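Thread: phosphoric acid mono(formamide)ester complex, take 2
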Amino acid sequence: MIQHFLTLLDLSDVQAQTLIQRAIELKAKQKAGEIHEYFRNKVMGMIFDKSSTRTRVSFETGMVQFGGHAIFLSPRDTQLGRGEPIEDSARVLSRMVDIVMLRTFDQENLERFAEYSSVPVINALTDMYHPCQLLADVQTYVEHRGDIKGKTIAWIGDGNNMCHSYINAARLFDFKLNIATPTGFEPDTNILQAAGDRIMLTTDPAQACQHADMVTTDVWASMGQEEEQAQREAAFASFQVDDNLMKLAQKDALFMHCLPAHREEEVSATVIDGEQSVVWDQAENRLHAQKALIELLLNQK
Ligand code: CP
Ligand code: NVA
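Output below.
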């Protein structure tokens, strides 16, 4: 059976730890100008049903650094966008390319694609999860502060795809996660319950931030929820990560945001542009962490 990466939980604990260390190594190689074309002539198919800056550029750049190539496929230009079944697209594409990444709406569509694909498939964001981002986030934490195991992370805002991936990361990397969401915007109950008592759920951002080693947030309206923007702005008004909230966390707490960010909505400019923020390292690490992921998936027997 092929190993795919549809959620973080497709990785074993050992694979996850090894991947983070490998991402750090690959970053060092890149910085040293060391050529590491381990995957010459390998091709990645990149299917985007939603917009992207970081994900597209990091995967495409990663494949080039590995000596391979990536093909950007949008529904505007492909038969997928004109209704060719996912199963057929998966069978055809995977006979040509060596690995596929897919950014789409339903997790179920991603799973269906993977079921019919003869090559590894990567979740590059769905409505349910964003696991690639978590690899970069954990790498960033480890680089700045060492092991994330046993640490306390505060998630402030929407119980969305990023929040779900943080819950899975808490299981995989064994950290505590305090989640503060407004009533009605909680994460999925099944995902939450599976993570057990590592998770504390509250409607009070201040409670979630108490003694946290890291604070993170995300947009209030995700891609596909644009029409709910105004209603969400009202519901999340008291959930902005600002200096007062950061003061409740540990003195050396890091601030992360997967980006794109809306300053003065989910985060104040003083926090995202302040000294505790590591968002640019976090964004860069998408490249290195995903290269480690590509390597893991392409090297599988
Ligand atoms: N964080 C993230 O996935 O960014 P993009 O939407 O720009 O890919
Ligand atoms: N929750 C956001 C993350 C963007 C990277 C979204 O899905 O739009």
